[in-house]
Design goal:
The protein has 130 residues and is an alpha+beta fold. It has three helices and five strands, in the order E-H-H-E-E-E-H-E. The protein has a five-stranded mixed beta sheet, with helices on both faces. A hairpin with a 2-residue loop joins strand 2 and strand 3. The protein is globular, with a radius of gyration of 15 Å. The relative contact order is 0.18.
Length: 130
């Protein structure tokens, strides 16, 4: 897609993340609650796709297993750009960047609900069994 470019997201991109996440999970998106923590998380990269200076896509990669596995999490494209290849290009860019930073990278995994990776342990008193 012409004019699309990618950059790492920072704390100042919270509003851009909200825009890209519009309507995700019917308003029950986990990312707004985790974004600020994820920006600072070691081995995690959050990338924004921008078109004419406006965020239209976002993806998070989290490298685990001593640099051998990349988890792709919170991958989304704003409704105005869906079906135009933004998500595919964003994923390709993110995975290429991960391979450059982590030469031992061998596996990719995709997470539908990344909140499970940041949840605090629950007990039976919380109403959830381990």
């Amino acid at each position: 897609m012409e004019g699309l470019h990618f950059r790492e997201a920072g704390h100042e991109d919270y509003q851009a993340m909200l825009r890209v996440s519009e309507g995700v999970h019917n308003g029950c998106d986990f990312l707004p609650a985790l974004f600020q923590r994820w920006v600072d998380q070691r081995n995690r990269t959050i990338l924004l796709a921008e078109l004419e200076g406006i965020a239209v896509g976002l993806i998070s990669t989290y490298v685990v297993d001593g640099g051998e596995t990349v988890l792709v999490q919170a991958w989304r494209v704003h409704p105005c750009c869906r079906g135009k290849g933004v998500g595919r290009l964003l994923r390709q860019f993110a995975l290429n960047q991960a391979r450059q930073r982590y030469p031992r990278l061998r596996r990719q995994r995709y997470s539908e609900n990344a909140a499970i990776f940041d949840s605090k342990p629950r007990t039976i008193t919380d109403g959830v069994r381990e």
